[in-house]
Amino acid sequence: MRKIPLLFAAALLGWASSNALAGTQVRLDTSLGPITLELADDKAPKTVENFLAYAREGFYNGTIFHRVIDGFMIQGGGFTADFQQKPTRAPVKNEADNGLKNLRGTVAMARTSDPQSATAQFFINVKDNPALDYRAPDPQGWGYAVFGQVVGSMEVVDKIRQTPTGAGGPGNRFRDVPTMPVIIQSVTVLPATSPATAPAAATEPVKKSSP
Question: Which of these, 7, 57, 126, 135, is most buried using a 10 Å CB contact count?
Fold first, then answer.
């Protein structure tokens, strides 16, 4: 009789071990609530370093989720509430070949058709999106670099994905824009915790990045 709970516990421990990133945590305070991310410091070091640099300098404060597609992803980190695109640093190396998949709840870098063009914009997958995963080191197969996952308040991500959308921005030239702006008020790098906890969640008018 004891074998069943022991086996279940072992399976649960294996799941947690395979999904835990045990990296830096950040909190996105949005107008619809906070979202906590755990970053893959070891799997995507350059991408994480790039994201944290933008976060620490306050780059994301006051930006919006400008592209929201229920059943796909929510994207932000590049435009102010009045749709001014923020100037960025040089692109970061595409680390999509790190073994991490674009599963529901993961966060990845947005980019243009150039695989090496990601700068500051990111997106959170609201479903499993295997078409965005790395397949080959060429323009068609590079994929989108996953560098973390939601570990707190996935329900806020779901609120954002369900918000009504339409055309927006200057001259209504943007599509899939929330009709009520969803603002990233701040991004805070959280103090390190020990031991690391397992994740709580499962895992163009203007040239702009997009998955």
Answer: 126
